[in-house]
Amino acid sequence: MKIHQIYTYNYLRNFTYLLETNEGDFYCVDPWEAQEIMDKVPQGKLKAVINTHEHEDHTRGNADLVKMQGCEIWAHENAKGKIPGVTRFLSKGEKIILGGEWSIEVLDTPGHTFAHLCLLIKEGDKPHAVITGDTLFNAGVGNCYNGGDSGVLYETISSQFIDLPDEVLLYPGHEYLENNLKFTLDREPENTQALKLLEKVDKLNMDEDYFTTNLGLEKEVNAFLRLGEKSIREHLPISPSSDKEVFVSLRELRDKW
């Protein structure tokens, strides 16, 4: 099974994903440009489009792919009336068989919106990668000002992502790594791992080269996963009494940063 990460070159720096099974079938996650997918997928081999959530930059290619490939559209059960043409509504814990040992576990991940899902890709029972839409980014998290709630996003991340194995690969909905690392360093200037990663990223052409992180690295460089760090807590505009308050305050700072 292969995960193809496709940078869309749009102003929002979206990623689209193609999941290619060992049998030669494809599933597309969050299509921006239908023709770009058609150029990579043989006719009749696109089984379904899966939308992580309802925002237009994650659903823009849906209708054209249905016309061109005759595929289905799958989305969160709360997306009823929000995403046109959905043929299958997905629920928490649902399993999508990809063939062989590979499968997807559907995660219910509210916060960015309340119709948001993430896709945990497994080989057998072992988590391999997670496609996170606008929930968890490389070195950051999604905003919550367009139909979401930052407190709920905290609960989602703390309950569903923190305990995933460190080696699980992270595939987000946008390429925001460089800016997110700079925010981490603004909050935690002595974070040497974030500084080292930023130096590596600075040497890349981020329109062509993408640095894939895993959950272990995220716990070292993502301020939103480092809520107990003294330097992060000390420089907030509030005196937090819980990790949740730290998270919400960080998200408010990031919105204005």
- For the biggest β-sheet, the strand order reads 1-2-3-4-5-6
CATH topology: Metallo-beta-lactamase, Chain A
Percentage of residues in helical conformation: 25-40%
Q: What is the H/E order? A: EEEHEHEEEEEEEEHEHHEHHH
Q: Number of DSSP helices?
A: 8
Largest sheet: 6 strands, mixed
Rg, nearest Å: 18 Å
Proportion of β residues? 25-35%
What would you note in describing this structure?
- The protein has 257 residues and is of the alpha/beta class.
- The protein has one domain: Ribonuclease Z/Hydroxyacylglutathione hydrolase-like (Metallo-beta-lactamase, Chain A).
- It has 8 helices and 14 strands.
- It has helices spanning 34-38, 62-69, 150-160, 177-187, 192-202, 215-221, 230-234, 243-256, and strands spanning 2-7, 15-20, 26-29, 46-50, 72-76, 88-90, 95-99, 102-108, 117-123, 126-133, 136-137, 140-141, 169-172, 213-214.
- Helix 1 links the parallel strand 3 (26-29) and strand 4 (46-50).
- The chain is globular, with a radius of gyration of 18 Å.
- It starts with a strand and ends with a helix.
- 42% of the residues are buried.
Task: Give the gist of this structure.
The chain has 257 residues and is of the alpha/beta class. The chain contains 8 helices and 14 strands. A 6-stranded mixed beta sheet has the order 1-2-3-4-5-6.
Question: Which helices and strands, and how do they pair?
Answer:
Layout: E1 2-7, E2 15-20, E3 26-29, H1 34-38, E4 46-50, H2 62-69, E5 72-76, E6 88-90, E7 95-99, E8 102-108, E9 117-123, E10 126-133, E11 136-137, E12 140-141, H3 150-160, E13 169-172, H4 177-187, H5 192-202, E14 213-214, H6 215-221, H7 230-234, H8 243-256
Helix pairs in contact: 3-8, 4-5
